[in-house]
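Technical annex, item 7. During the second reporting period the consortium partners agreed on a shared format for inverse folding records so that results from different sites could be compared directly. Each record opens with the tokenized structure and is followed by the designed sequence. A conforming record, contributed by the partner at site C, is shown below for reference.
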């Protein structure tokens, strides 16, 4: 082993550890890796940054904009509203239609985006059909993940691999090259979820009352302000009950009139009844100090916290939201957004006490009280997702035909090589579709760059550079030789299965794109060393990187984890069986379509 190989493999191990610990964002880890490769002289600067000039970066960035056009115009909402008309309250038919729609959507919209778009719709469908959301949301995520394996643009992983293999002298994927095995896998996966998987799904959530779902009854009380209370005459921000007394005022009842979610300038008057959130021990502790009396016959329900345009609703913290890593205190959430967070649900655990100190993470669901329009700034920036169907008023319905037209233009041009013999580069096809969106103002120029996930683009570019390091140092050949020596005797199918399982394992702590691009150079060199078809291994790794069902760490699964009230073991039980099934299907079918 040469020093360069040792350095490259050491950096690979370090990157995997950093990906697994999630202490740093994945794009930052990628940048650190590239810097280390340059400082150790494994790569020259131009080689290290070459990944950023790859056309796949332009293609993925453009796809974010095409998908953004479909989101802004509410194309998926049309599909969602028709699902209930077709299925009614039949759970079996609903699961089948949701999985089929998610798979079809993910084949062109990417699985995470499809899941995010369908999530509020499916929650609404569950409420209409009086079905526990947990019976529908995992099938939604799994259907989207399966559907992403059907086309070149189904996942960014497919595009990243397609771009990376050109460095080894192989043709990139055509638009539907992955479709034959992908479609069969979708069918088999749906069959499993509709039979065995559906029997294993838990029944959680779906209670009519949000106060029941979050178990906040014991934390909400009504107290009466006594005439000699020091609170009398003070504005709510002056009283500062949250910081001083550990209580949050959710409403005021004055002369029989209820004022929910009062503003910070509202003054407390004698004999006001305050609806407060806090532990009974906190209320008893400050009872005499604050001059308040507990009302013994207070009955809590959703109506007690709603009214006069004030509602209770749930929002989910999105992956790249600026809320991630922050607390309600550091965000000054109530003052900034004029909204009150009553509870936080995280993977089945509900936080009600000391909410201001809870550090938010991707996938947290917040129970919020306030006016619906106050959440619009967060929705516009895609910081959060409201877990119910979006009102048509917030969508650009009149631009819907242009959004669909731009996507169809892209798809048609991408097939030009097959249809006419004149091939247009995929990046150009995407950019022409984006130009149509901008020309018709379906997407406004001012919002264009906010729709692109630059974190993902940076990660893919950095991992492509790492692939160059593996190739230049011979680290890929070194590992391939070890695999050939120790496992070559077992045959090509066994080695392919080994790479498939290795990739699936790496997708648990790492992003799918990073896992695929780490394994890819080794798999290609191993296939060459064994005299096998490298494309068979390339396709196998592409599928393996897409099939991440075992844990809820896949972004599509994270999105449904908390809204579905799932436990970690729910995914392990149901997802492991599905992983074994798609593994068998892939290992049997991939060599048939791409012979070894």
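Designed sequence (site C submission):
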């Amino acid at each position: 082993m040469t020093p360069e190989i040792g350095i490259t493999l050491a950096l690979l191990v370090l990157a995997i550890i950093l990906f697994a610990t999630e202490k740093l964002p994945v794009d930052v880890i990628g940048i650190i890796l590239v810097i280390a490769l340059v400082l150790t002289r494994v790569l020259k600067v131009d080689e290290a940054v070459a990944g950023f000039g790859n056309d796949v970066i332009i293609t993925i960035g453009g796809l974010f904009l095409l998908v953004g056009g479909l989101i802004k115009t509410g194309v998926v909402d049309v599909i969602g509203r028709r699902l209930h008309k077709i299925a009614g309250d039949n759970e079996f038919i609903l699961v089948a239609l949701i999985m089929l729609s998610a798979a079809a959507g993910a084949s062109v919209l990417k699985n995470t985006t499809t899941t995010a778009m369908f999530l509020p719709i499916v929650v609404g469908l569950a409420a209409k059909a009086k079905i526990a959301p947990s019976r529908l949301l995992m099938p939604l995520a799994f259907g989207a993940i399966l559907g992403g394996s059907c086309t070149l643009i189904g996942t960014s992983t497919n595009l990243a691999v397609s771009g990376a293999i050109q460095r080894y002298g192989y043709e990139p994927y055509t638009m539907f090259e992955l479709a034959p095995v992908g479609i069969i896998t979708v069918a088999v996966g749906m069959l499993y979820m509709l039979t065995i998987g559906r029997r294993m799904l838990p029944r959680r959530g779906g209670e009519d009352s949000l106060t029941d779902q979050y178990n906040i009854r014991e934390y909400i009380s009504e107290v009466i302000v006594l005439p000699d209370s020091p609170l009398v005459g003070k504005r709510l921000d002056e009283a500062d009950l949250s910081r001083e007394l550990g209580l949050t005022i959710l409403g005021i009842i004055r002369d029989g009139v209820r004022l929910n979610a009062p503003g910070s300038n509202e003054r407390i008057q004698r004999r006001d009844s305050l609806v407060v959130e806090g532990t009974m021990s906190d209320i008893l502790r400050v009872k005499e100090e604050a001059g308040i009396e507990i009302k013994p016959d207070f009955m809590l329900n959703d109506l007690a916290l709603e009214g006069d345009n004030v509602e209770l609703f749930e929002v989910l913290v999105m992956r790249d939201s600026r809320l991630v890593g922050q607390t309600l205190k550091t965000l000054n959430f109530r003052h900034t957004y004029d909204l009150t967070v009553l509870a936080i649900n995280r993977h089945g655990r509900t936080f009600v006490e000391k909410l201001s100190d809870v550090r938010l993470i991707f996938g947290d669901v917040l129970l919020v009280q306030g006016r619906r329009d106050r959440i619009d700034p967060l929705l516009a920036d895609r910081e959060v997702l409201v877990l119910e169907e979006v009102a048509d008023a917030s969508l650009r319905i009149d631009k819907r035909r242009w959004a669909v037209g731009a996507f169809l233009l892209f798809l048609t041009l991408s097939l030009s090589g097959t249809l006419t013999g004149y091939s247009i580069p995929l990046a150009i096809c995407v950019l022409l579709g984006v130009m149509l969106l901008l020309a018709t103002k379906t997407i406004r120029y001012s919002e264009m760059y906010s729709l692109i996930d630059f974190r993902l683009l940076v990660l893919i570019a950095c991992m492509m550079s790492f692939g160059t390091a593996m190739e230049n140092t011979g680290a890929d050949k070194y590992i391939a030789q070890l695999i050939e020596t120790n496992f070559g005797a077992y045959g090509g199918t066994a080695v392919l299965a080994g790479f498939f399982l290795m990739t699936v394992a790496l997708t648990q702590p790492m992003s799918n794109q990073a896992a695929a691009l780490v394994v890819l150079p080794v798999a290609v060199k191993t296939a060459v060393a064994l005299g096998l078809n490298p494309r068979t291994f390339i396709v196998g790794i592409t599928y393996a990187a897409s099939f991440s069902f075992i844990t809820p760490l896949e972004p599509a699964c994270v999105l449904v984890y908390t809204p579905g009230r799932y436990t970690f073991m729910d995914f392990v039980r149901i997802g492991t069986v599905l992983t074994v099934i798609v593994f068998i299907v892939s290992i049997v079918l991939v060599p048939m379509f791409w012979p070894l």
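The CA atoms of residues 76 and 117 lie 7 Å apart. The chain has a mean pLDDT of 82. All partners now use this format for quarterly exchanges.
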